[in-house]
User: Which sequence fits this backbone?
């Protein structure tokens, strides 16, 4: 071993011995701790619902914490229901040198007050205009995007949940902690709702007394029979579909529609739009456009009609004129004719009577007037006949299918058919019977409607012209036809029962 290596070993050994020498270690140790007894602090939370015991360990030869003394201090403070086991556990930990503070040092708890449950209204129907749910954002129907709130008679609108009283609590000193007071709506009810009450007079269920729009404004719950559109029916409103009546203070713009289970009133115009009213319809301006249409379950009153169609179960009244229009009424049509313009071209059909200031034009524009035929009943008859023809056509197809299974030979043996063919044959035979029976029922209904139509001819239908009727106006009464050849004035047209033809009379 070389001298240099031996010298390094000796140097290392010397450093180790110095490190391990008592004198060097003692010189580097910190001074011994000061003798200090354990201490603690008792804190009460601001809400008086918790007592905290913050503990600090003893140092040196200090005295450890005394759990019994701590409990005595808590009792002297008036703290109720002290968790003595927790005090003992904290004192033990502190004696082992572990401090305690915060949430882990709770030694007593009060009972917090239970908050009251406020009264609330649980609405069971749509109360405000809302957007329709649409899973496909790329194909939004902007005209039918909005849903208008509406209810029918008897629909439950809301449930009233009365408030529940809270319960008082107790603080750590045994003092009561009062619960907060409850709150509730001061609800009032309109004439459009019905309220069912429980034993203590608190409303439980609110239902609609009438059809209309449910509203909750200024703490008043009600159903309004009228939906008011303060402007136009356009992209901002979408199509209107309402259970009550509708008032449009503007116009109904092109491509939009208004439907109401009661009346519709439009203060402006209807531009290439559609209106359907189960009740009456009033349009103060007019209707225009080849795709414009108004239907009413009762009457229609309108300013002017241009290139449009209207259909009323009872009456149509036009304050201005009807130009290239279609007018249908179950009872009567009346065209007042401002500026001496009446029914100019187009078609007018009424069950009982047509009265207009004029018909046709000096240009001899083709115009057709027809009375004595209820357009609605005739439409029903037409639809029934179409259905009957469809059943008869299907009956013929079934017969051909049956022949294809049986074959065209002189004899037929059922046993020669497969089970699948037998099943199809029996099914076709059953369907054939249903088609035949349905066609017969429809034929009977058609006969009933035709007889009803004939019975309505007890009232003598008339066409009255208060000023002028021009050439090329075609008149139809009870199926008889007359084409006006020359201009006439102050004239009425009716059926001469003796001769069975259209006759003239003085207006």
Assistant:
């Amino acid at each position: 071993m070389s001298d240099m290596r031996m010298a390094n070993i000796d140097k290392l050994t010397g450093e180790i011995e110095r490190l391990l020498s008592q004198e060097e270690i003692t010189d580097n140790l910190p001074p011994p701790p000061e003798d200090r007894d354990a201490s603690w602090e008792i804190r009460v939370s601001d809400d008086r619902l918790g007592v905290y015991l913050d503990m600090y360990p003893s140092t040196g030869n200090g005295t450890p914490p005394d759990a019994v003394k701590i409990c005595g201090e808590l009792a002297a403070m008036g703290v109720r229901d002290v968790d003595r086991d927790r005090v003992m556990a904290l004192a033990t930990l502190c004696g082992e040198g572990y401090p305690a503070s915060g949430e882990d040092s709770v030694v007593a708890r009060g009972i917090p007050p239970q908050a009251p449950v406020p009264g609330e209204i649980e609405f069971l129907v749509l109360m405000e205009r809302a957007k329709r749910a649409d899973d496909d954002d790329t194909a939004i129907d902007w005209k039918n995007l909005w849903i208008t709130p509406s209810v029918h008679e008897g629909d439950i609108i809301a449930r009233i949940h009365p408030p529940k009283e809270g319960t008082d609590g107790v603080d750590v000193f045994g003092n009561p902690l009062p619960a907060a007071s409850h709150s509730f709506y001061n609800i009032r009810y309109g004439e459009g709702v019905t309220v069912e009450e429980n034993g203590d007079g608190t409303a439980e269920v609110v239902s609609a007394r009438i059809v209309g729009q449910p509203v909750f404004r200024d703490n008043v719950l009600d159903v309004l029979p009228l939906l008011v559109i303060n402007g136009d029916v356009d992209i901002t409103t979408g199509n209107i579909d309402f259970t009550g009546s509708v008032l449009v203070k503007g116009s109904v713009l092109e491509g939009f529609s208004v439907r109401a289970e009661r009346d519709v009133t439009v203060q402006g115009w209807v531009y290439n739009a559609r209106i359907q009213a189960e009740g009456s319809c009033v349009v103060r301006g007019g209707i225009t456009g080849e795709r414009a249409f108004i239907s009413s379950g009762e009457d229609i009153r309108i300013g002017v009609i241009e290139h449009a169609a209207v259909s009323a179960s009872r009456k149509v009244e036009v304050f201005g004129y009807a130009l290239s229009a279609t007018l249908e009424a179950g009872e009567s049509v009346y065209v007042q004719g401002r500026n001496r313009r009446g029914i100019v071209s187009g078609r007018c059909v009424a069950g009982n009577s047509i009265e207009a200031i004029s018909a046709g034009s000096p240009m001899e524009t083709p115009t057709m007037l027809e009375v004595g035929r209820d357009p609605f009943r005739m439409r029903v008859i037409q639809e029934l006949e179409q259905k009957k023809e469809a059943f008869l056509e299907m009956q013929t197809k079934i017969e051909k299918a049956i022949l294809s299974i049986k074959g065209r030979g002189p004899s037929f043996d059922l046993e020669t058919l497969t089970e699948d063919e037998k099943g199809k044959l029996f099914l076709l035979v059953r369907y054939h019977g249903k088609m035949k029976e349905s066609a017969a029922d429809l034929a009977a209904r058609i006969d009933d409607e035709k007889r009803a139509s004939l019975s309505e001819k007890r009232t003598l239908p008339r066409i009255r012209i208060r000023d002028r009727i021009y050439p090329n106006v075609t008149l139809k009464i009870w199926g008889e036809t007359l084409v006006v050849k020359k201009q006439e004035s102050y004239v009425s047209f009716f059926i001469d029962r003796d001769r069975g033809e259209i006759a003239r009379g003085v207006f």
